[in-house]
Amino acid sequence: MLLSPQQESKFSAALSKRFENEGVHSFLENFEAVAQKHEQRRQKIKKEGEIEVEKSPLEFRLTFGERPKGLTQSEFELLYIETLYTIKHKIGTTTSKHSGGENDLYAYAQEAFGLSNEDHQRLLGKANEEKPPILILNVEIVEAKDLEAKDTNGFSDPYCMLGIVPEIRKFVIPQQGTSGVSSDEEGANANSPNDNKLGFMKRLKSFRKSTIRRAQGREKTTSLTGSSPHNVLKDKLPAKYIQTTDVKKATLNPVWMEKFRFDIESGKTETFHLDIWDHDDEFSVFEAAKKLNEVQGFKGLNRYFKQIAQSARTNCSTEGSHIDDFLGSVNLKISEIPSIGIDKWFSLEGRSENSKVRGQIHIRAKLTTREDRGIPEEDNWTDIKQHVELLQIFIQHELNKFKGEKNHWTGELSRDAETILHQHAIQGDITDTQRSMCRWIAYSKKHLERPLTNKLLLSVTEQLERTWKSTALSRDETDMLTEAFTLFINHCFKQLTRIRELFPANNRIAIERLEQLLTIIAKLHSMEVFRYCCPFQNNLQYELTSVIKTGTIEWFDRMVSQITKPRLRSDEDTLRNTSELVYVIIADAYSAVKYYNPVFESTTKMTFYNISLKKIDGKLMDIVIKALEEELGDQIHQSPAKLLENKEPDSLDALTFASSAEQISLALFELYLSLHELAKYKIYVNETDRVNLKIIQYHMYFGAAVKKWLSVARNKILHRIERSVEKDKVEGTGTFACNVKFTSSSLDVSNCFSQISQFWRRLAWPDIISSITYLIKITEDMANATRLYATLVEGKLNARKFYETNDLSYYIQELSLTVNDTERIRESFKTLPIELSYDKLLVAAEKFHPITVVDEYRKKIETTVAMCSQEITDRIYQILSKVVTNIEMDLKQHLFHIIEAPELVSSQDTVQPLFAFLDTRSAPYREYLIKQNFTRLLELIWSVLIDQLLSEIEKVSTPRSIASYVRLTKALDSIVDYFNAEEQCLTKEALKTDKYKLIKKLLKYHSTDTHSLIKLYYQEKVQEQERTGINNQPPHLTDLGKLYCRAYYHLKEETLYVEILSCKNLKPCDSNGLSDPYVEVQLCPKFLYPHIETQQTVIVKKTLNPSFNEKFEFRLTEKECNLSGGVIHFTVMDHDLMWSNDFEGEAFLDMSKVIGIPNESNSENRPLDELRQIELALTHPKAVRSRIIEILEIRTSDKVAAEFVRRRRETENQ
């Protein structure tokens, strides 16, 4: 509803009338109540935000359509068969963290899959029908160290030959020629080859291979035997059992990092065997083994290692042959390899107890299986999918078994589950990276169905990061992981869009979950595997910003729909609902700053509230502006200065709007306070974004509201003043108690001022310049209220004909209450700008505005306060002056008796009647007046006494005795002591006014003899000369020019030397605008230097700046020079031939200042020519009224006085 200025005035007047019969300060008190309610809401928000809630928060659940697709019945049964097949063909020895019992594993699988015994037996039969898998040994030869040096260079050229030794059978080693025996076999062949006392391990000490270096040696051996090494071994050895590593040249610490794969026929009896040899020939056991392995289709034999060695020796020459040196061997039984594999350093062994070998070799070995299904061995995609599905079933089973709260489950599986999963992984040759991938996919997908702890998900994520390698996954596996990443990330982002519901800020558990969730998201985005699988995913900051914005808008819209209801009754409902919405956002801001910000900053380096507030800032302010426009119209867009320019008429009939006006004003104030509180959170927004926030300009839309508040408050205060003064009815002295010094009206009005100050502090208007504008208006309004109150209370006193009576005894208390109340209001108003903190506001304004502008504001405020305060003070003095006027005649009579008392009467006796009179008359006022007003009354009495005493002293025409003036001085001191006493409370500073000081001076002069008085006169002239131009004397009497001179006293010669140098800027005395100046020099007073004659300079014609440069000598003794009161008197004259000489000016130089005169103030002793010149201002005797001349003038019988006065008067008249 938009009101015209006339309607607004009518509105305010009607509002005042509406509450005329209600409480004294209902309007302002209600504003304070709103402010206190706001403070309670603010504290409640803070308190609720600090109370930690332990209750588990809501869990985010996907809808049915969002859940991952499950297994069909046939897929479910096939997975169970695969599980039973894995258990039946368990490989490797069982470790402590796995379960070894086959029946226990069957039972756990049946329980996890939830199958009946019949289904279990049926599917177990199908698993038993499956063909057993092929056992495979994967070996990695990593490195060796500290091997024995076999070559002359101090190194060896090591390589490894490794293979599987079949089950042991009794056999006879055919005796071959010994010419090709290696250097390490000499002791080993001492016994018969048929000796079975050596055990299996002793027979496997080495492959016993040797090499022949020269080609011709090889050819010779071949011709002798009639067959090649390949032909020798063709029907005896399966070549695939023997494999070799590369030769590492010239090293004792070779690094191979080579992998080998062996099929195992019977895992219970076979042994893995490894030899290390030093390569010494172009053709050796190394080449023999490689050639042999080209042959296919051999059956297993139990002596193939030695046969390989023999095949390499077949054509060795007897002399000069070179053999491979044996460096050591390792044996590892297949049945002893644990299911988790083995990764360790093995110490190398010799062929016999006498063999000397050293060093260690690092071997990694693990068992796996391969099923004969017609697919490549390296393709385990089916196993990986089954592993994920098996993991999900076991996870669900463990969750169902868990007895505590599901969100407390740590994700740990039972030993049986871990055993089955482990066997499935090693039998399917699933790598560590693939297992981590499967584990992450299984847990993350299960999380979509049934929320798991974020801590568990984080640990699974970290495990995936530790094991992942870019080349470790196939395309299908990468796609599978990508799909899981996408599902999980989207799921997390959906949770974050409902952060306020799922992660309430004051819930410790929820905040911990939020931190873990953000940590997982941040971890995923920082992981190489995530970037590899999801290369087109936006960066984390972009994604989270989008999620926070979306979630905040959705939350804000829900809050708006819940809180902002359709208007059913009045505009008040819209304003209050808007305020409630702002309070909800304040609570959200507090939670965001206290809880969400630290979590987001620590995990993602982002600020939650910075994003949140920016998103809802504009939408919120649109709602606020719309609500304000409905109530205040287009005025909300006007500046405060323009609003205050429109003056309101005093009256208009607007009772139609009065009933709801105050409630709407209060609703507006509540909305303002809530927005003011929300705007404080701008400090948590980045500085670059802060300036664009609309919330920081919230106050710009409340200018019309503030104007309305101030106008209504002003009208109510003015109306309240009238009513309060009217209620203070005083019918007689018995109406009030004796100790009452104020009426209720002053308390009422003073409280109004206090409430205005409190209202301004609560308002805390953020804009400095408009704040000053409002502050000036408040000051002016309260000044008018103060004047109104003073006028009304004085009018009541005047209505009782106070000023017309001469008997004030009946009005003492009423008069006292009037001035006391007035002073109370004056003090309240005087301190109002201080309570409004105007000085701090102006100091702050200096940072943004020119000092001249700020000084204008300061001057306007201080002038308003000072003028009003002085006006009220004058009113108080005016009322109190009636009391003084009433006793003025009595005061004058008492003072007359003091002055005219006989000389024999002591000063103390003369003042006692006055003191007794004052005690009697001031006693009632001392009781009723406050200290400040009683002091004012005494000041008025003192002023009357001083004025009368000064008048009596100044009008004396005949001289009195010096004794009478001495007594009068003592009487004045006694009066001062009386008014300065504790009971009267007048300070000596207040008593010693200018008139008092003049009286003291005049009394001193009257009490002084003529000679001393003349010396005082010259001392005053010196002082007057020094003050020339300061005391605002007329220019024609003071601006007379300067005289420059030097003075020096020669002690030995007893001569005073005076040099007159020049004059400047003299007054023109002739018609030509110039003068003919000269200077007269004399020592004064004359009675001190009777023998000294006046001397003068030459006349300098037609100039105002004459130069004299003349020296004068005065014969003076040291004693004469030190006489008190002596001066050098310079008189500048204008020479006239026809008429008397004209007076230009005079100057005085104190003798005590002359250089060379021995005294305490003079220590210089220099020749006259070296002395600095002295500048003296020329003065006129009439420039300052001389009280001494006036006093000497009445001493007509004193010839010295009369002569002195005559000469001075002549000078004055020139």
From TrEMBL:
The keyword Cytoplasm applies. Its main location: cytoplasm. The keyword Transcription does not apply. It is found in: Cytoplasm; Late endosome. Residues 908-1017 form the MHD2 domain. Belongs to the unc-13 family. This is BAI1-associated protein 3.
